[in-house]
Every structure is written in C-alpha cells, then in structure tokens.
Amino acid sequence: MRIAAALLLLCLPPLAAPQAPAAKEIFEEGQKAQQAGNYQLAAAKFAEVLRLDPELIAARANLAVAFSSLGRFDEAIEQYQLVLAKFPKNFDLRRNLALAYYKKGAFAEAAALFSALHDERPPDLGVATLLGDCEFRLQRYGDAVALLTPVEAANPDNLDVAWVLGASLVSSGQAREGLARVERVAHERQSADAYLMTAQAYLKLTYFDQAQQAAREAIHINPNLPGAFTLSGIIADYQDDLDAAVAAFEKGLQANSEDFDAHLYLGAICYVRRQLDAAREHFNRALALQPNSYVTRYELALVDLRENRLEAAARGLEEAARAAPDWLPPHIELAALYYRLKRPEEGGREREIVERLTEEERQRKATSPVISPILPSQ
To answer: Which pTM does this prediction carry?
Structure first.
C-alpha cells in the first residue's frame, strides 16, 4: 500500500540555517543531496554541520529525515526528539517522528502520535489514514472502522482509505462489507496484499472458487508474499482437495520454514491420512512456534489417542478444553475418552457440555452466512 507519506525535508523559519560560511555551504550541500535522493551523503553533510555547530536545529532535523530515509529509524527518532524538545508543537516534526515509528514497525507509538495529530487537524487525510492503518496493524479493527468510515465518505475515491477500511472490516468479521473495497484496490493497483485479503474475505463467505482465484492472483503478483501459499492451501483444504492443499503448504514452508499455519494444517492432513509420525512432527514444530496453541495441543492429543496413549491424550484434551472452554471438539473426544478410562462421572459432565455447545453451534450456523475456520484462531 502507498499510505506512508513522504518524509518532509525540514528547514522551517524557526529552524534557522547556519550563518558561518563553511557550515552554511555544507548545509546547502546536504539539502541538495537530500533533494536528489542521496540520503547517505545528506546524512554525512548534516552530521558534519552539527560537528561545527551542535545547536543548529535545522541540521539536526534534516539529519533525522536522512536517517529515516536510510531505514536508520532509531537514530532518526533520537534526532527528532532532540529537535522537538525545543519545538514541541511543530506539526511537521511530530508527523515525521510518527512516520519514523510507523516505518520502524512500532505501531503503538506511531498510533499515539498520529492520534494527537489527528485531534489537532481532523481534515488531514494522510494522518487519518496512517492512524487507521496503525489501528489495523494493532488488530484494533473496530477503532479503525470507526475512524475511517467518515473519512471514506468524504474521500470515496481514495484507495488508501478503501484498503485500510476494507481490510479492517474483513478482519473484524464483516467480510461482506469489506470485500468490495479490498477487491477494488486489488484490481486497480494489482496489489498482492489486497488480493490476499480478497481471498480471505471470499473464504469467510464460503465462495471457495473466488477465494482460490484471488489467492492465485496474489501469488502471481508476488510469489514470495508471506502466507499466500498457506492461504491457498487452507482454501484447497475447505474444497477437500488435499493433494493441492499439501502442495501449497509445502511451498509455504519452503518460503518460511516457521509458518505456524502450514505446519498445523499439514499435520492435520497427515493425521487424516494415518501418517502419524509426520503428523506428530508437524504438530511439534507448530507447538514450538506457538507454545500456547490449544488447537495444536488438541491435534497432538488425537495422535496420542490414535496410538492408544490414553493418559497423554486425556492431558492434551484437558489442556485444550481449559484454554478454549467453548470449543466443541475437545469436549467430544473427552466425553468418550473418560468412559474408556473408567471415569464415568467426568464423562457425563463432558456429554452435557457437548449437548449445550452443539445446540449453540446449531443456532449460530442458522443465523450466520460466514464460516468459521476449520481450525479456530487462537
């Protein structure tokens, strides 16, 4: 996406340029280098000016811009903070500082800064969009939707707003509302990220063919897009095309050997195919990546159960049930397993839980057109 606005080269009237001839000449050389996109040279020039005059705020501000442009975000943040100590209300400096945090991936810090800027200048489209994107990346989808819905109404043709709002709607479970927005961005920008989100929206709406086509478009545009092959595998799993799913998950693991979902789903397919050693290996890899994954513990318990390791299976199922008390599968297995272990009282308790959760699930499916994942999110 294109929502990260360009950093401003800063030489505002309060940030006076150097007066000494040597420093002034070097400062101007730094500005020219920065305007030409030679940020390495610009940083060297501004640093040289600061060695001559450590109090020269204009050089320090533009050194921060150069550092940020070079991806040296911690150094940029340090320089911006030094300048802001003298000019705490300067809007452009504060926006550049927020952008440095954003580009660093420190979205909580960026969100706090963008929020203050947005309160100060609500009409600033770039600030509002970047704040919405921070909220999205922090998984505060409702906040992003609330913020950007009126922004979209005032800017209906802005694709950056459409992308962040659409992605937030899809991620918050409002797949139908978000689909048109992310699909529009995907088509108009040929964006792999937007095609991947389009695939997720179609999957949630059970339009499997459209979901798979969108996933393929994402892969075509960017074969290295994280999670693209894995999502394609998940869609194929829903379509009961296990061979295609396995091929996609294996490609996902070639791209990222620590892809949790690929290990988890591959393990589940191996279990269905009675390849228990391979299933256990994938589940153990998944558990090493996410030790608190109750789904993985449940799947490992099924392997133990199939291999007649009943006590180990009971422990795994109990851990899964404690972690997700309203998730039906571990209760179903425990209800039967407790009777095998001659623990009828616990078996009866689990049967009651199964009956209650089954009825709740029936009612939920009757009212919702959106599918739940084969394996729940954790």
So the answer is: 0.82
